[in-house]
Amino acid sequence: GAVVSQHPSWVICKSGTSVKIECRSLDFQATTMFWYRQFPKQSLMLMATSNEGSKATYEQGVEKDKFLINHASLTLSTLTVTSAHPEDSSFYICSARRRRGAKNIQYFGAGTRLSVL
Amino acid sequence: AQTVTQSQPEMSVQEAETVTLSCTYDTSESDYYLFWYKQPPSRQMILVIRQEAYKQQNATENRFSVNFQKAAKSFSLKISDSQLGDAAMYFCAYKGQGAQKLVFGQGTRLTINP
Question: What pLDDT, in 10s, does the model give residues B19-42?
Answer without folding.
Answer: 999 999 999 999 999 999 999 999
